[in-house]
Amino acid sequence: MTALDLSRLITAAADTIADHAEELTALDQAIGDGDHGLNMKRGFEAVRAEADLFAAKPLPDALKAIGTKLVMTVGGASGPLFGTLFMTLGKEIPAGPDRASLTVAFGKAIEAVAARGKSQVGQKTMLDVLQPVHDALAEGKTAAEIADIADVAAKATVPMKALRGRASFLGDRSIGHMDAGARSTALLVRTVGQAIGEDA
């Protein structure tokens, strides 16, 4: 991935979050604090503002820097979680990753997010999208297929009962709503897939 590619990817991710900020806020208003969309938009706008600076770095360093920026600017529970995802990816990924090394690094990043959030798959969180995406990556699925899998996984959080985060306070009332973090994760997965290309 060239610096120009990474800069364009950062811009695309920020655009995606901005375009869906109201949707993410509405999802979070139903079972959370109601600030997920606004917080994510603020964080990714901050990353966009330094896109060229990040893109000039080697990929591992760029990912770690992006993660740090998200921790500092997103706020709430999402900042540390999304920040941990990117920072761990940066720590684990080689400068010129292939699918195998990306899969391994992504798996480590998911483990770090689970540890940070003290959560696991099935508890109505972003992990419910991240793990199926990792599995699809390991199975050799195309970028388009992985994006579709992420969308299906986000929708699958609707009937779940939240067991972590603020939504867990609602108990059974959390059932029937999509998790905002799962939705934003799926949106970012599709954006990355489209940027990388159908054959990735």
Structure report:
69% of the residues lie in helices and 0% in strands. It has one domain: DhaL domain (Serine Threonine Protein Phosphatase 5, Tetratricopeptide repeat), CATH 1.25.40.340. It has 200 residues and is mainly α. Helix 6 (78-92) runs antiparallel to helix 7 and helix 7 runs antiparallel to helix 8 (127-138).
Please provide a brief summary of the model.
By secondary structure, the chain is mostly helical. Helices cover 69% and strands 0% of the residues. It has a single domain, classed as Serine Threonine Protein Phosphatase 5, Tetratricopeptide repeat (Alpha Horseshoe), CATH 1.25.40.340.
Secondary-structure map:
Layout: H1 3-19, H2 21-31, H3 36-49, H4 51-55, H5 59-73, H6 78-92, H7 99-117, H8 127-138, H9 143-155, H10 180-196
Helix pairs in contact: 1-3, 1-10, 2-3, 2-10, 3-5, 5-6, 6-7, 7-8, 8-9, 8-10, 9-10
